[in-house]
Structure formats: structure tokens, C-alpha cells
């Protein structure tokens, strides 16, 4: 592979409003910043817009600042990363990204006035990482997603699904009509946010109220969802993907929820429970009767191996939130461990959603599913989703859901969603 020199790098920003407050991790957001990154070699320029989510990547940073201030901190971190790679050379993007992480951490810790989570750093790097992979493809004459998959990850991305089950997101304030709309569209797997903060008088009161809220919320969703049948799951019934975002503080509280789910026939329809505990809370989950899925706690191959040793048997791969570079490595590690993995969303823009589909279409289905799956919830949450679609590069089309699925036909694979075509997203003027 060629040695590629980054002659210049630039940065822009677009703020996208959400339709209504989006609730998770016991908090809410009403806007997501799109950090647009461009990298340039002597012959080519590559551009990618990345979606920032400080609340998801480091809730402590979000809590200590206003939403705008926390977004500004991540934006500055991305700008610093661009300055670190400008003038550098690389052969593969993953090696370059890995080389700047120590310096970037030092900078982010300084401006945030705390030790930030690694996920904060990775989230800030997403646009840069995808731009680097695009530049890498252009410089090496690669015109397909298959062409950029590193040799070590080819086995982990060896599938080719003809369709991907769409996973809609059911956040705290999704109402019954919106849930019914998702189910009527043919959904086979619902991603449900649990862990709402409903009593802030004290930690213990908050935890007790949270568990009761989760029980009631799951019972409400299950009563409606169990009326539907689907050929997308092995059971023929709609399955659940529960996302706690680290809100549970003890295993006993999680057991309380699981016992309730078991007694009310919800557990048998639950494919995975994601990230019940904070990443610093290293609790063994080997004895739990449900697959535990790692997300924010898995920043690298080493982190994932730690989660596997604790009993986690699945991982959320988020090229669109933790970089494509890290996701290749984690897919390889979980494949070797015999576990499961899926592609989750971060309420990203349409271009990143297309990247996520390309990754998801090549990984094995969850054990509860008959086909691959991918979460996309930008259409549910952005007030500007249709406008964002219009800003895709010339010739690229965003294909929505048909009968609960995204279609992955021959053109999807042969053209790789036109991700390796022209630049132009967000009409971003490059140097």
C-alpha cells in the first residue's frame, strides 16, 4: 500500500435540531452537532460529516457543562486531532488513528478539566477516521467497501445478507402511536432505552424509581408488540434489545428487572441487554440468563477482551461512533471469542447511516435473528432528515425501509452505496 501524505486538513460545523427531546442515560438532548472533516493529499480530498454525542460518549462531561459547551469541547478535540495529522504520512488509517490517541487524550483531559472516557476521544475522531479511509481508498484505487477491509477482519465481515432488519429506537418519550407505527412497518427487533431518571431526590430513590419505571415501560411495550408476528426472528415474534447506557448501579437491581421480565414473559423475547453497568463497574455477568452486550465500555480490542472475561457475549460495533478503525479490530476479537456483534446507531446523518449499513451487511446475525440487522434512528429524530438526504454527494441515494428491512441487492455491494464516489456532502468547501 502507498505511503500517503496529508497535505492539509479542515473542519466545519453544522447543528441539526431534533424533532423533540431525545431521552437516554437519564437525560435529554434536543440537538446534535455534525462535525465535518476534510483531509487532502496531493491528488485527492476526502470529506466526512460525523455526528457528535457527548451525552452518549461521556455523560460526566455532558453533566458538567451546558449542551453547547460540551459540544464545543468535542468539536475542539476533533480540530486538535486534525492538527495532529496534518503533515503526517500513513499507510493505513487505523495505525495513524492509534498513534495520535495519547496526545489527543492529553489535550481533551486539559480542556475538559477531567480525564475523559476513551469513547469521547473516539467519537471526536469519527469524521476524520472515515475521511482517512476514503482517502486511503482513492490513493490505492479501491472502489468498494470490501477493498478497505483489513486482512485481519475479513473473516469477521465475511457474510453477505440480502436484507438488514431495521432496528428503530424506542427512547423514553416514544408514545404508543409512534411505537405502533414502527411495528406496523414490519419491525422485528426494537431497541428500547431503559434507565430513566424519575426521582432526583437521592441516588437510592432514583435507582428504585428507575427500576419501577423500566418494569412498567417494558410491560407497556410488550403488551403491544406481542400482537405482531415476523419472519425476521427465530421465534416469529418481535424481539427486544434493551439499552441501559450504564444506569444500573448493582447486579441485584438488574436481577430485579430480569426476574420481573421472566415472570411476565418478556425475557424470552429479549435478544440482548446492553451496557447495564458503568464501565468502571466491573461486575461478572456469567450467571445472568440473557446475553449482555458491551457498548460504551468497549473502546478497543483490549477493553472488549475484558468485557468477554466478565461474561459479555456480544458487542455493539459502532463505526459511526467509535471509528471504523476500532470497529474492525473489535469485530475480529468478538469473532475469535465466538460471540455476537451488531451495528448500532448514534442518531447519525444519512451518509454515516450508509457506512453503517455496509459494515452491518457483512456480519453474522444475532442468535435471535434470521438475518443481519442495523439500527438507524435519524429519520425518527431529526427535524431536518429529508434535507440531510438532499445534501448527499451527487448520485448517492438513501434507501429507506421496506417491510421492516433495508434491501442489500447486488448494486448495494457492487457500488458500495457510492461511498467511494465524489465528495460534496453538506456542500462543504474543501481546501
Describe the protein in words.
There is one protein chain. The chain has 16 helices and 15 strands. The protein is an alpha/beta fold and about 425 residues long. The chain has 2 domains: about 5-145, Enolase-like, N-terminal domain (Enolase-like, domain 1), CATH 3.30.390.10; about 150-425, Alpha-Beta Barrel (TIM Barrel). The chain has a 7-stranded parallel sheet with strand order 7-8-9-10-11-12-13. A hairpin with a 2-residue loop joins strand 2 (about 10-25) and strand 3. Helix 10 (about 300-310) packs parallel to helix 12. The longest helix is centred in the middle third of the chain and has 23 residues, at about 205-225. The model is unreliable at about 425-430 (pLDDT under 50).
Please outline the helices and strands.
Elements: E1 4-5, E2 8-24, E3 27-40, E4 45-51, H1 54-57, H2 59-64, H3 67-85, E5 89-90, H4 93-112, H5 118-139, H6 145-148, E6 163-167, E7 169-170, H7 176-184, E8 189-193, H8 203-225, E9 239-243, H9 251-263, E10 270-274, E11 292-294, H10 301-310, E12 314-317, H11 319-322, H12 324-337, E13 340-343, H13 350-360, E14 372-375, H14 378-381, H15 385-390, E15 405-407, H16 410-414
Parallel strand pairs: 6-14, 7-8, 8-9, 9-10, 10-11, 11-12, 12-13
Antiparallel strand pairs: 1-5, 2-3, 3-4, 6-15
Amino acid at each position: 500500500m502507498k505511503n500517503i501524505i496529508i497535505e492539509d486538513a479542515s473542519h466545519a460545523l453544522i447543528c441539526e435540531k431534533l424533532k423533540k427531546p431525545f431521552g437516554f442515560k437519564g437525560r435529554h438532548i434536543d440537538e446534535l452537532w455534525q462535525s465535518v472533516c476534510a483531509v487532502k493529499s496531493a491528488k485527492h480530498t476526502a470529506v466526512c460529516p460525523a455526528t457528535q454525542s457527548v451525552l452518549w460518549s461521556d455523560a460526566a462531561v455532558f453533566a458538567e457543562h451546558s449542551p453547547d459547551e460540551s459540544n464545543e469541547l468535542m468539536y475542539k478535540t476533533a480540530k486538535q486531532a486534525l492538527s495532529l495529522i496534518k503533515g503526517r504520512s500513513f499507510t493505513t488509517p487505523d495505525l495513524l488513528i492509534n498513534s495520535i490517541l495519547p496526545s489527543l487524550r492529553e489535550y481533551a483531559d486539559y480542556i475538559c478539566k477531567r480525564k475523559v472516557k476513551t469513547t469521547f476521544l473516539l467519537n471526536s475522531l469519527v469524521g476524520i477516521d472515515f475521511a482517512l479511509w476514503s482517502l486511503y481508498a482513492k490513493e490505492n484505487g479501491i472502489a468498494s467497501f470490501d477493498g478497505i477491509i483489513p486482512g485481519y477482519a475479513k473473516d469477521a465481515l465475511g457474510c453477505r445478507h440480502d436484507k438488514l432488519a431495521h432496528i428503530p429506537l424506542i427512547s423514553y418519550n416514544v408514545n404508543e402511536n409512534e411505537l405502533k407505527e414502527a411495528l406496523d412497518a414490519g419491525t422485528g427487533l426494537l431497541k428500547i432505552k431503559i434507565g430513566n431518571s424519575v426521582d432526583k431526590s437521592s441516588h437510592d430513590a432514583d435507582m428504585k424509581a428507575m427500576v419501577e419505571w423500566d418494569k412498567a415501560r417494558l410491560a407497556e411495550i410488550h403488551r403491544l408488540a406481542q400482537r405482531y408476528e415476523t419472519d425476521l426472528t427465530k421465534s416469529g415474534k418481535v424481539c427486544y434489545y434493551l439499552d441501559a447506557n450504564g444506569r444500573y448501579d448493582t447486579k441485584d437491581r438488574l436481577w430485579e428487572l430480569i426476574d420481573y421480565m421472566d415472570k411476565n414473559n418478556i425475557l424470552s423475547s429479549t435478544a440482548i441487554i446492553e451496557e447495564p453497568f458503568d464501565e468502571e463497574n466491573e461486575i461478572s455477568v456469567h450467571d445472568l440468563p440473557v446475553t449482555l452486550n458491551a457498548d460504551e465500555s468497549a473502546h478497543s480490542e483490549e477493553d472488549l477482551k475484558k468485557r468477554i472475561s466478565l461474561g459479555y457475549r456480544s458487542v455493539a460495533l459502532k463505526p459511526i461512533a467509535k471509528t471504523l478503525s476500532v470497529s474492525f479490530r473489535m469485530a475480529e476479537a468478538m469473532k475469535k471469542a465466538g460471540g455476537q456483534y451488531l451495528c448500532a446507531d448514534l442518531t447519525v446523518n444519512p451518509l454515516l447511516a450508509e457506512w453503517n449499513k455496509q459494515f452491518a451487511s457483512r456480519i453474522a446475525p444475532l442468535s435471535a435473528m434470521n438475518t443481519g440487522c442495523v439500527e438507524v434512528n435519524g429519520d425518527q429524530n431529526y427535524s431536518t432528515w429529508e434535507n440531510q438526504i438532499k445534501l448527499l454527494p451527487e448520485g448517492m441515494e438513501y434507501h429507506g425501509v421496506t417491510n421492516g428491512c433495508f434491501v442489500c441487492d447486488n448494486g448495494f455491494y457492487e457500488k458500495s452505496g457510492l461511498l467511494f464516489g465524489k465528495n460534496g456532502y453538506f456542500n462543504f468547501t474543501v481546501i
